[in-house]
Amino acid sequence: MSAAIQPPRRAHAAGIAILRRHGTGGRLPLVLLHGIGSNATSWEPLLGALPPQHHAIAWDAPGYGDSAPVPTKAPTPDSYAEALDHLLAALGLDRILLAGHSLGCLFAARFAARNPDRVAALALMSPALGYGAAPDALPPGVQARIDDVTSLGPQEFAARRAPRLVHDAPNRPAVLEGVRRAMAAVNPSGYAQAVRALGAGDLLADAPRLAMPVLVATGLEDVVTPPDNARRLFAALANPIRLAELPGAGHAMPQEFPREVAALLGETILA
């Protein structure tokens, strides 16, 4: 089996569960931060398609899977940036390439803004912009996420919500099942913390502080974080390198089109 298709392995560091794929070369590692209804396994299609030279690490965010939650009921993106800092220190990684998807963009951007010398390049995919809200004043649509997962339970919550993330879901049953399975695995308390961080976040405010090269990518059929989110973010960046708009892709773009997203990363932040 070639190094390019060796499956990633589970590991733990600093209280965080990760999927880790070892690369064949001495390139900077790529760290991947998933979205609010996902986990590290959501990156598996992309991990299998990435250039083999790069090490890649996908975390289960705090409060997801076997990862310890952040130590506050009402966290902000700073809370998750600090958790990422502890993880990288435990792994001995001083400088990385960083990519976020959806809510993961808020965490990735906050870490990069706080640590500009440690992030060589950044990719923000299907970006959630956040709401800049106080923890006790979440917008009704954001609070509804917590209410729904609490009242319905993760399984029913995932069954109802997952189809919105996949464009043309009936014709992409494997992608839909992967999205549903990851969403059904959320821990309601960890999910509630992440929702509060989404409410508190403000990606457009962080954007001008990102000095490193930044790729922005969006699916043109995304109804969760519409393409206009990506366009607004791209316009606010200090050092944008490309705005990529993928036809036929929904919110779950890295799972729907892993080869295309891997090629895009290879041409930009991994180059």
Q: Quick one: overall form? A: globular
* Rg over CA atoms: 17 Å
CATH architecture group name: 3-Layer(aba) Sandwich
CATH homology superfamily: Alpha/Beta hydrolase fold, catalytic domain
Total beta strands: 8
What is the distance, rounded to the nearest whole angstrom, between the alpha carbons of the first and last residues? 25 Å
Uncertain segments are: none
Query: Largest beta sheet: what is the strand line-up?
Result: 1-2-4-3-5-6-7-8
CATH topology: Rossmann fold
Strand percentage lies at: 15-25%
Overall CATH class: Alpha Beta
Alpha-beta classification: alpha/beta
- Count up the domains: 1
On the 0 to 100 scale, the average pLDDT is: 95
The biggest sheet, with number of strands, parallel, antiparallel or mixed sense and barrel status, is: 8 strands, mixed
The sequence of SSEs as H and E is EEEHEHEHEHHHHHEHEHH
Helix content: 40-55%
Count helical runs: 11
